[in-house]
Write a structure and sequence with these properties.
This protein is α/β, with parallel strands linked by helices. Helices cover about 40% and strands about 20% of the residues. The strands form four sheets. Strands 1, 2, 3, 4, 5, 6 and 7 form a seven-stranded mixed sheet that branches.
C-alpha cells in the first residue's frame, strides 16, 4: 500500500506550520496506482496533483492530501477508506478508479458520516439515504450513452451488439444502452461480458460476429477496454464500434492501436477544448486545467480522467469555503456535517468537464453541457459537430 502524504513545497510547509496556525483540511484520496485500474487511477493522481497546485488553501486553511493506492482491489479500497477515516481523521474522501471500489468506499463513508466525492459514476439509488454523504463527479452513463445512441439512430443503425465488463460498470453501460436503444428503436442483440484482468475475449467476439450486428458497443474502460476491439478486428469485423467516456484514455489508444481507429465515444468537452467554440461554458476552465496539469506534471494531459479529479477539487474548494463560513473547525464532526451540506447544495461551479449543480436528491450534478461526441482519428480525438 503506497502512501503519499504531501505534494510540493506548499504541502510540506502546511505540515510544519499547520499545527501552529489553523487546523488543516485533510483530504483522503484513494486511487489505483497499480493493477488493472492503473491506466485510470494514475491520471486521477496526476489530476489531483494539478488541482493542488492550482488551489492549496481555502479561506486561509491549508489543504492536505493523504493518498493511498488500493492496487485495483475492492477490499483494499474499503480498508483504505476506513484507515483514512479512523486513523488519519480526514474530513472528506475522494476516489476511486473503478465502480466496485467506489461502492466499497461509499459503505465506509455513510457508516462513518464522512462526506465523499466519487470519481466514478454511481449506480441509480446508491447511497440514497435521507442524509446523503456522497456525490459523483463524472457524467452518468445514461447521459453519455444516450449521446452515441442518438448518433447511431442518425446513421440508420438498427442493431447493436454489446460487450463489456462483468461487473457493476459493465452493468451501468449495458442498462444505459438498453434504455436509450429502446427509445431510438434500436435492438441490442448480445450481452457479452468479460473480467477486467482477462487476456482474451475470442469466444465473445465470435458470438458477436455470428449475429451480424450493424454496430458494436464497448462497455469496458481504460486499457482493458481495448480487448474487444483487438479481438473483433482480428476476426474481420468491419462495422462501426462505439464506446463510453471510460475509453478516453491514452493507454486505451496505445493498446488499441489500429483496431481503435474510428471508434466513436461520448466524452466531456475538456478532451477537445481547443476545438470548442468560445461560447462553450467550460472552455475557459478546461484550458486552465490543461495549463495547471502541464505545470504540475511536466507534460500535457492526454486523457479525460485527470480532469475529473481536478473538477472534484474545484467542487470541494467551493464547498469547503461555505462549510468554513459556519465556523465549524476542520477535524470535527461538525465540519464534516457542514461540508456534506455544502457539497449537496453546490450551485454553478464551472469545471473542465461540466457546470456542477448538486442537490440532496441528486448524486450527479451535470447536464447535457457535460458531453460531446468524438471520434478517434490518427490517434487523436476529434469533435463530431
Amino acid at each position: 500500500m503506497k502512501k503519499i502524504m504531501v505534494w510540493g513545497l506548499a504541502a510540506v510547509l502546511s505540515i510544519l506550520v499547520g499545527s501552529a496556525a489553523k487546523a488543516e483540511i485533510k483530504i483522503g484520496f484513494i486511487t489505483s496506482l497499480s493493477g488493472p485500474g492503473a491506466s485510470i487511477g494514475i491520471p486521477y493522481s496526476k489530476g489531483l496533483k494539478a488541482a493542488f497546485a492550482y488551489i492549496s488553501e481555502v479561506s486561509g486553511e491549508k489543504l492536505r492530501i493523504i493518498e493511498l493506492d488500493e492496487a485495483s482491489d475492492t477490499s483494499a479500497a474499503a480498508r483504505d477508506a476506513r484507515k483514512l477515516v479512523d486513523e488519519d481523521k480526514v474530513d472528506v474522501l475522494i476516489g476511486t478508479s473503478g465502480v466496485p471500489g467506489s461502492l466499497a468506499m461509499i459503505q465506509v463513508a455513510v457508516e462513518q458520516k464522512t462526506p465523499m466525492i466519487g470519481l466514478t459514476p454511481l449506480p441509480p439509488g446508491t447511497a440514497g439515504d435521507p442524509t446523503p454523504w456522497v456525490i459523483s463527479i463524472p457524467q452518468p452513463p445514461s447521459l453519455m450513452v444516450e449521446a452515441v445512441v442518438e448518433y447511431m439512430k442518425a446513421k440508420g443503425i438498427k442493431t447493436v451488439a454489446y460487450i463489456g465488463f462483468s461487473d457493476s460498470w459493465g452493468d451501468l453501460v449495458y442498462n444505459s444502452l438498453i434504455a436509450a436503444a429502446k427509445k431510438a428503436d434500436i435492438e441490442v442483440v448480445t450481452n457479452e461480458r468479460y473480467a477486467r484482468p482477462d487476456t482474451s475475449v475470442t469466444g465473445q467476439a465470435l458470438k458477436i460476429i455470428a449475429v451480424h450486428p450493424d454496430a458494436v458497443m464497448d462497455g469496458g474502460s481504460g486499457t482493458p477496454g481495448a480487448l474487444p476491439l483487438l479481438a473483433l478486428t482480428e476476426r474481420g469485423y468491419k462495422g462501426p464500434i462505439f464506446g463510453s467516456h471510460a475509453l478516453i484514455n491514452a493507454d486505451f489508444v496505445r493498446v488499441g492501436g489500429k483496431a481503435a481507429e474510428g471508434i466513436i465515444c461520448p466524452t466531456g468537452p475538456v478532451v477537445v477544448a481547443e476545438q470548442l467554440p468560445d461560447s462553450a461554458p467550460t472552455k475557459k476552465a478546461a484550458l486552465a486545467f490543461r495549463a495547471a496539469y502541464e505545470e504540475a506534471n511536466g507534460a500535457a494531459a492526454t486523457d479525460a480522467f485527470s480532469s475529473y479529479a481536478f473538477d472534484a477539487w474545484l467542487v470541494l474548494a467551493d464547498a469547503a469555503k461555505r462549510a468554513l463560513a459556519t465556523k465549524a473547525k476542520p477535524g470535527t464532526q461538525d465540519f464534516r456535517n457542514a461540508l456534506r451540506e455544502a457539497l449537496v447544495t453546490t450551485e454553478n461551479v464551472v469545471g473542465a468537464h461540466a457546470v456542477y449543480n448538486f442537490t440532496p436528491a441528486s448524486r450527479s450534478g451535470v447536464d447535457s453541457r457535460a458531453r460531446v461526441v468524438v471520434q478517434l482519428e490518427n490517434g487523436k480525438w476529434t469533435l463530431i459537430k
